[in-house]
Amino acid sequence: MSYPEGAPKSPLEYDLYMLFVAVMYKGVDFSWLKAMIKKEQVSFWENFWFWKEVAKEIPIKPTQFRILNPEIIKETAIDLLQLPEPRPKLFGWDQNIPTLGVSAVVLATHLCDEVSLAGFGYNISQPEMPLHYYENVPMTAMKAQTMHNVDKERQFLENLIKEGVVTDLSGGIYCKFCI
Predict the structure, then answer these.
(1) Average pLDDT for the chain
(2) Pair 129, 135: CB distance under 8 Å
(3) What is the pLDDT confidence band of residue 105, given thresholds at 50, 70 and 90?
(4) CA gap 79, 109 in Å, rounded
(5) Max Cα separation, the chain?
(6) Which of 71, 133, 156 is nearest to 107 (CA)?
(7) Half-sphere exposure of 56 (CA within 13 A, CB side)
(8) How many Å from the N-terminal Cα to the C-terminal Cα in the chain?
(9) pLDDT of 112-141, one tens digit each?
(10) Most-buried pick from 46, 108, 110, 129 (CB within 10 A)?
C-alpha cells in the first residue's frame, strides 16, 4: 500500500506475487499509476508535481494493481481521527492527512476478523529510534513533518487497542504489562 512518492524505487524491492494497493491523493497520481501499469514513462511535466522522486517502474503484472477506495482515507482522517477538512492553502499543510500505517489499520478492520500490530508505534520519547523497521530514518522525522498528526494517531490506536478492536503484539502503542 503506497502513494507514488512512497513506492520503492528499486525493482528488487517488489515481490513478483504481491498486490500493489495505490493510494491516490492528487490527479497526477492516476497518471503515475497508469504509467506503472502500462510500463510507460511519466512525463516530465507530470513528474514536476510530485514532492519527491517517484518509482520509474513497478515490476508486477497489471492484474496485481489495486486502488484504495478514497473513502478509507476520508473515514480515517475526518471520521475517526477528526482531523480538519481539507481546504485551499497557499503555503504549508494542515495536519489532516493520515499516515498510511493508520489508514492500513482502518482498512484491515474492514477486511479482517482480527487485526494485530507488531512493531508499530510512534515513540516520540526516543527521538533517535528508527521510524520504520526497514530504514534508518529517526523518529524525529515524524515529529518534524507537517501533514500528519502523530499524537492524534497514537491516541486513536491506543483506543483501538484498549477497546479490543486491535491487538498490539509488541507493545509499541499500548503496553498493558508496562503500566
Answers:
(1) 86
(2) no
(3) very high
(4) 15
(5) 53
(6) 71
(7) 5
(8) 33
(9) 999 999 877 766 677 677 666 666 777 777
(10) 46
